[in-house]
Each structure stands twice: as structure tokens, then as C-alpha cells.
Amino acid sequence: MPVYKGETLKMILIYAAAILIVTWILAPLGLIFLSAFAVPSEYYDIRKPIPTKFTLENVNTLLFILGAWRSTLNSLFVAILTILISFALGLPAGYSLARFMFKGRDTFKLLIIGLRMFPIIVLAVPLITIYLQIGLADTLIGVALAHTAMSLPFVVLITSSIFAGIPVDYEEAGMVFGLSRMEAFLRVTLPLALPGLAAASIFVFIMSWNEVFIASVLVLINRTLPADILISALNAPDPLKFAAGFVMVLPAMIFVFIARKYLIQVWGITIR
Amino acid sequence: MIVFVGYPIIETVRLAFTHPTTGEPTFYNFQRLFEDAYFWSALKYTFLLAGIVIPLQVAFALGVSLLLLKKFKGSGAVLYIFLIPLTISDVAAALIWYNILTRNGYLNRILISLGILDNPIYFFGYQYRNMELIALVITEVWRATAIVFVIIFAGLQMVGKEYLEAADVFGASQFEKFRYIILPMLKPSLQTALLIRTLFAMQVFAVVWILAGRDIPVLAGETYYWQVELKNTNVAAAYALIIALISVTLGFLYIKFLKPQYLER
Questions:
Q1: Residue A82 located in a structural domain
Q2: Quick one: DSSP state of residue B105?
Q3: Residue A209: inside a domain
Q4: Residues A117 and A244 placed together within one structural domain of the fold
Q5: Please, what is the average pLDDT of chain B?
Q6: Are residues A154 and A252 in the same domain?
Q7: pLDDT of residue B205
Q8: What is the rounded distance in angstroms from the CA atom of residue A212 to the CA atom of residue A221?
Q9: What are the structural domains, with CATH classification, of chain B?
Q10: Which of A135, A179, A205, B131 is the most exposed place for a label (fewest CB within 10 A)?
Q11: In B, which residues are within 8 Å of A149 by CB distance?
């Protein structure tokens, strides 16, 4: 294809725009990485445009002196528990939505889509009094349950879409050869669905890992990472804030990088 | 789900109409709230922020979608990079932009060392509230345009190539194609994007709380303040109820007047 002058100009404009977009997203991320490891004295010198000396001190202080390591573990605990409960409840629902025609199926689906839109922070306040009555006040399990309420509609929608993408013929073939329905699910459908389910669980992980309002209202002492940072960030010196930003961003980005192929698909499902 | 969501809603209503000290049913919490200048301010700023941020996000997401629709070398990478903020929490996003905009942040340091500025620009602090608002808008656009983009980009891919080719045959200009073909076919996606973003905007919290504190009050921030700092669950419940009512009303209005496609399918 011959390249015309107008075409070249157009390509230059497209690439200029693309570079601008990439910079807009990546530069702030790069700068927080830089600041997290910069020597504080350089930060306070306003004539120094970018840091030149680096240290692990900021991250170290944040994690092991200010206790963010402990809240990181709390966050991990809450996220994993959220994944377990929301899959235990949501996977069967997603499977039956994909496989069976039952009365009220459409109503059920509409209800789930509606719930997904529900402002979940509203739940945090009443949950405090409810948890006081049932002994879950100030516990991470309580936070995980609230996060389950938040992620369950997504889990149902995502898993049902994954199962719908696996032909029912495979299961039926398995059953013809003498598998029970449960066995057919476990040995035929589940292995096929596994990559998608893994991506879905990463999606839930990120939701829980990033959620701050419910977590900071429900637990006051032994907090999750974002809730902890929300309180301590306001009082900490700036270099520690940057270290906090870095610590929060890193795990989610690693996970997304691993599962990037599937995640775009999963996000596609959640917003349809 | 009924247990998870239904019962807490009933409990919210009960709490919101219960007197904090006597425990009797009352409108006291709402009276107190309506007399509080922070409530009206929070209402104003929540809607103001949504009103500024959402149009910017939609325009930006639309622009990036149209760009990425032209397949060029590296467009896949741009798409992936543009989605990164989806994984970043509002707390982290606030800190990321604080890092750039604060007094000793990169913006001031670079501009001063280049000799463009003599004195730093201040974005934070009560006396710079308008600048704080700008910082919030930048952070929200950076953080949450991706979700609008995902919806619009998916919608754009469904616009059939045949229509655009037919338009080419009849000599339509780029603008005419956009105005009369792409935009009408994109309407359902735009509506979904608007609905989701508006509902999220009513819950905006951590970005505001970290960057502006109560200088710029928002509804979710006030809920947090009453609950965690003042330990008054009843007024906090009244706030929660108001956020829920606004969300439900907005959702209802969207569905009634715009009829998003996903409910028709």
C-alpha cells in the first residue's frame, strides 16, 4: 500500500496521541515507585527535580515499624476468605443460571444485575450494630462477609458466563459414559472453566484488596491495609505516604499482569 | 443475598429513625443533619464533583476508544496500559496524585528547577479549596475513566463496519459518520456508562478524604465522619439512607428516561 502524505501525518498524530495516553497513565505510577524509594532529604529539597539516591528505609519503616505489614496480612486474609465464601455461594448459582431453565430465572438474573449497582457502602453502618449482636464486631471475618455481599453478584454473573461458554454436550457425553452429574461437573466442566475462574477470583481479590469504606467503618483496631493507610496516611510524613501508595499498588498490578488475557474478558462480563 | 442486603437495609432505616440517646423512634437524626452546614455542603460537592468528572471521563473515554479502534502497531499495549487504573484502589490513586501535586511534589519541583515557577503552586489546604477540587478531578479522571472506557469501547466494537462503509460510499465526512452513525449506535453503552459512573460518584470517599479531608465534604465522607469519629451510628445511618435513596432515584430516572439496553435484553 503506498503511503500518502496525509496518511503519514495521520499516523504521526495517532502515535502522538497514543504516547500521550500511555504517559498519562504510566508517569504517575512510575513517580510513586520512584518516591517510595527516594531518600527523604532529597524530597524536601524543592530544587531537586527528581531523586537520585534511593533507600529501602521508607517501605521498611511503613511495613515493620508502623505495622503496615500486619495490615497487609489482614488484607490478604480478608481477600482470601471473601474469595472462598463468594465462590462457595456464587459458583453453584452461576452454574445453575447457565445450565438450567427454572422458574424465575430471568427475575433472578435481573435481581443480581440490580444488586450489582447497589451502593454497598450503605451496608457498612447497619452491619456494625448487627455484628455487635452476633459477635462479629471488629473482626476481619465480618469485613470478609461484607465484601462477600459486595462481590457475590459479580461472581454469579462471571461464573454463569464462563459455564455458558462450555458446551453442555461435554457434560452429557461424560454422563453417557456413566458419570453422575456431580462427577461430570468436577471432571469435565470444572477443568475447562478453571482459567476463567482463576481470573474471576483475581477480580474478587482486587475488589476486596482495594475496598476501604466498609473495612474502615467495621474494624477500628486490627485493620486492613487500605483502612490502616487511610488513618495513618493523614498523619505520616510524605515519604511514608508514597511508600504506602507503592505497597498498595504492587500486588494488584502483579496479579493483573499474570492474568491480563482473561481479565479484560472478565471486566467485559461485569459491565454488560 | 436477601439476608446479606435486605436485612441491613431494614436495619439502616430503623437506625436512622432512632434517637441516639433515648432510643425512641424520631426524626431527630434528620433534623440534626438538615441543620448541619456540612450536610448541604456535602450534597453540593458530591453532585458538583460528579457533574465535572463524569462528562470529562465520558469525553476522554470516547476519544481513547475512537483512537484504539484504528488498529495500529502497539494499540493492544495502549489498551492494556489504559486499563491499569481499574486495579488501583482509590486510596492508592489519591496518594499517587498527592505525590505529584503536593508542595514538594514533582510538578512543583520540576517547574521550579526549570525556572518556570518561582514559588510552588499549592493544591492542598483549606485556603486552597478550589485547587483541591482540581486535584480531586484530576485524580478521579485518572483513576476511573477506565471503567467508562471498557463500556464504551465494547459498544464501539459492535458498530457494524458496513454502516461506515456505506457512509463512505455516500461521501460522509468523519464528523458526519461520528454524529449520525457512531453516536446513535453507541447510545446504549453511553447510558450504561453514565449510570454506573453516576452511582459510583455518589459513593466517592477515599480520594476526597485523603486529598481534601473535610475541606471538601462529600456524603460518604460525612457518613464515615459521623460513624468513626463521632461514634454516632444513628446520624451515620441517616446519611447512608440518603445516599441509598439518591442512588435508587437516579438509577430509576436513568432506566425510566433512557431505557438502557441491558434491561431490554
A1: yes
A2: S
A3: yes
A4: yes
A5: 87
A6: yes
A7: 93
A8: 14
A9: 37-264 (1.10.3720.10)
A10: A135
A11: 1, 4-5
SS3 A38: strand
* Best of B91, B232, B241 to mutate (most A CBs within 10 Å, chain A): B91
Distance CA B205, CA A269 (A): 26
User: In chain B, what residues touch A44 (CB-CB under 8 Å)?
Assistant: 104
Which one of B10, B75, B80, B95 would you mutate to disrupt binding with A, by most A Cβ within 10 Å of its Cβ?
B95
CATH number for position A168: 1.10.3720.10
Residue of A88, A69, A110 whose CA lies nearest to A201:
A88
> Residue B146, SS3?
helix
Q: Could you identify the residue written with the cell 431527630?
A: B28
Same domain (yes/no): A213, A143: yes
Integer Cα distance of B27 and B154 in angstroms: 46
Phi first, then psi: what are they for A54, rounded to 5°? -125, 155
pLDDT at B260 over 60: no
Q: Is B198 on the interface with A (CB under 8 A)?
A: no
Q: Which domain holds residue A228?
A: 67-271
Beta bridge partners of B25: B18
**pTM over cut 0.95:** no
What ipTM is given for this predicted complex? 0.88
